[in-house]
């Protein structure tokens, strides 16, 4: 569709009707809604869908982020987190460092340990396995969501073994699920500009398919608000929906708002209306992915609260402490207490429901 010639209002109304009756949208229809639907109508349709799925529940998890190394052989142009080996600020934590940090949190009932790092070729597979075992021992009540598909590919390539073998070894050591990072935007032309060293979108999808085939659930992300178009965004969502039709293994989709500071990309980040339009479109288009996350660390608390009215049903967690977005200038807090998190959800008019990493509700709050 040519974005310069808006489709007739009747077309938009018909597509919105289709969305409201929860019929599957085609990519062309999604693109029309993205560029031309009135904002309020788009958000109202997504809100109806969200209410039908989850009522007023907004899920959250008591979690901790562990970024075990920021040393990375890649140099994604949007990334302000990674360092080259030996550079000032480069750091790699030992399993003992990680356990000491978890122990310092006392008896806080943490449910999720989110583990993501750079691609540091000096770390042997045993390091990853020891880290998982140590975390599982220190926090037996928490689930470990660890290692993006990019890290899984790096481990497989540097050891000369299959991704299946890597995932099996990680699972044996305590891995519960994969986070959604590394997807960025699947378009090969954009990846060549954004992250030329990174695995292709096809390989990212294939690793998630392998995980799903083994019964490991995963999340999916899209980095947005930089140099991508609405057509690129819809193509990305479409690839996720197609894979989900085959495997059913994605639990949650997370649009990651690009943070513009301290990196070489030179883009400016999404405005609030783009955040709401993308949230609403994602809820309506991804009819087979149950959860949509308003990731407050990248969106900021206020935009994340508004996203709960545009289709999102999840507010992520306490985090403490977020480093990837903050290295790139995120102006949200680096973490929230449980009461701050619940308050942010309640102030937005939703019902906070604590969950496990794989979205099993804890307790019994329902609207
Ligand atoms: O893939 C890097 C992103 C991702 C920037 O699964 C940036 O629940 C914004 O995987 N601005 C890693 N984003 C984070 C990740 C994640 C985070 C939260 C929840 C979950 C989940 C997964 O961070 C990378 C990349 O897309 N990133 N730089 C930046 N400047
Ligand atoms: Fe490395 Fe990940 Fe940063 Fe890319 S986004 S440079 S792979 S840490």
TrEMBL record:
Cofactor, free-text remark: Binds 1 [4Fe-4S] cluster. The cluster is coordinated with 3 cysteines and an exchangeable S-adenosyl-L-methionine.
Domain Radical SAM core span(s) in chain numbering: 58-292
Catalytic activity as recorded in UniProt: 3-[(1-carboxyvinyl)-oxy]benzoate + S-adenosyl-L-methionine + H2O = 6-amino-6-deoxyfutalosine + hydrogencarbonate + L-methionine + H(+)
Positions contributing to S-adenosyl-L-methionine binding: 78, 184
Pfam family, one: CofH_C
Keyword entries, A-Z: 4Fe-4S, Iron, Iron-sulfur, Menaquinone biosynthesis, Metal-binding, S-adenosyl-L-methionine, Transferase
Gene it is expressed from: mqnE
Protein name as it appears in the record: Aminodeoxyfutalosine synthase
Functional description taken from the UniProt entry: Radical SAM enzyme that catalyzes the addition of the adenosyl radical to the double bond of 3-[(1-carboxyvinyl)oxy]benzoate, leading to aminodeoxyfutalosine (AFL), a key intermediate in the formation of menaquinone (MK, vitamin K2) from chorismate.
Entry's EC annotation: 2.5.1.120
Binding site for [4Fe-4S] cluster: 72, 76, 79
Cofactor(s) needed for function: [4Fe-4S] cluster
First-level EC class: transferase
Source organism (scientific name): Solidesulfovibrio carbinoliphilus subsp. oakridgensis
InterPro entries named in the record: Aldolase_TIM (IPR013785), CofH/MnqC-like_C (IPR045567), F420 (IPR034405), FO_synthase_su2 (IPR020050), MqnE (IPR022432), rSAM (IPR007197), rSAM_sf (IPR058240)
Pathway: Quinol/quinone metabolism; menaquinone biosynthesis
CDD domains, alphabetized: Radical_SAM
A GO biological process held by the record: menaquinone biosynthetic process
GO MF annotation: an example: 4 iron, 4 sulfur cluster binding
């Amino acid at each position: 569709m040519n974005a310069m010639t808006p489709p007739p209002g009747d077309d938009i109304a018909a597509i919105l009707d289709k969305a409201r009756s929860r019929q599957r949208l085609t990519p062309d229809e999604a693109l029309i809604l993205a560029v031309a639907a009135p904002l309020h109508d788009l958000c109202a349709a997504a809100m109806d869908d969200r209410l039908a799925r989850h009522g007023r529940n907004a899920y959250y998890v008591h979690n901790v982020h562990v970024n075990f190394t920021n040393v990375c052989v890649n140099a994604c142009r949007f990334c302000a987190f990674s360092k080259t080996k030996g550079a000032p600020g480069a750091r790699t934590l030992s399993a003992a460092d990680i356990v000491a940090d978890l122990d310092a949190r006392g008896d806080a009932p943490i449910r999720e340990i989110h583990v993501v790092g750079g691609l540091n070729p000096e770390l042997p597979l045993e390091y990853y396995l020891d880290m998982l075992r140590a975390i599982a021992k220190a926090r037996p009540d928490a689930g470990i969501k660890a290692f993006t598909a990019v890290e899984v590919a790096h481990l497989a390539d540097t050891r000369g073994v299959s991704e299946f073998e890597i995932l099996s070894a990680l699972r044996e050591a305590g891995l519960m699920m994969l986070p959604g990072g590394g997807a960025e935007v699947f378009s090969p032309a954009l990846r060549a500009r954004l992250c030329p060293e990174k695995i292709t979108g096809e390989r990212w999808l294939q690793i998630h398919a392998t995980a799903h085939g083994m019964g490991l659930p995963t999340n999916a992300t899209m980095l947005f608000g930089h140099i991508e178009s609405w057509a690129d965004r819809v193509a990305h969502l479409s690839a996720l929906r197609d894979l989900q039709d085959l495997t059913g293994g994605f639990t949650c989709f997370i649009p990651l708002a690009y943070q513009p500071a301290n990196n070489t990309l030179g883009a400016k980040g999404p405005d609030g209306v783009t955040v709401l339009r993308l949230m609403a479109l994602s809820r309506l288009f991804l009819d087979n992915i149950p959860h949509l996350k308003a990731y407050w660390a990248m969106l900021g608390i206020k935009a994340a609260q508004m996203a709960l009215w545009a289709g999102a049903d999840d507010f992520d967690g306490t985090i403490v402490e977020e480093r990837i977005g903050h290295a790139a200038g995120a102006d949200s807090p680096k973490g929230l207490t449980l009461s701050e998190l619940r308050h942010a959800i309640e102030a937005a008019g939703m019902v906070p429901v604590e969950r496990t990493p794989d979205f099993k509700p804890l307790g019994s709050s329902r609207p």
